[in-house]
Amino acid sequence: MSKKLLAIILSVVLAFSVFCFPVGACVQIESVNIENTFNMCLDVLIHRILTVLNVFWPGYDGDWDKIEDYRTDNFYKGESKFDKNVTDASEWSLGYAGASLLEDIDVMNGEYFLAGSLEVFEGRVPKKVNDDQRVRVYAISDGVSGIAVQAVIDGFGLSRGDVQVIRARVEEYAKSKGHNIISMDVSVLHQHSCIDTLGMNIPLLSGLIINTSNAALGGLLDKYKVVKNQHFMENLFEKTTDCVISAIENMETGDLYYGYTNIKEYMRDARDPVSFDENLHRLRFVPDDGSKETWILQGSMHCTGMGAGPDELTADYPYYIEKTINEKVGANVVYVIGAELAIKQERELTDGENTTDIENIEAYGYALADKAMKINNDIKLQPVLNVAHKEVYLNVDNGILTLAAREDILNAIIVKDGFKYVLVTEIGYMELGNKVGIFMCPGEFDPMLIFGGPESGDAAWTGDSWDYAPVKDFSDAEYIMVYGLCNDQAGYVLRDNEYHSLIGENEEVNIISRTAGAVFTTEFDILLKSVK
Question: What is the predicted pLDDT for the residue at 14?
Answer without folding.
Answer: 39
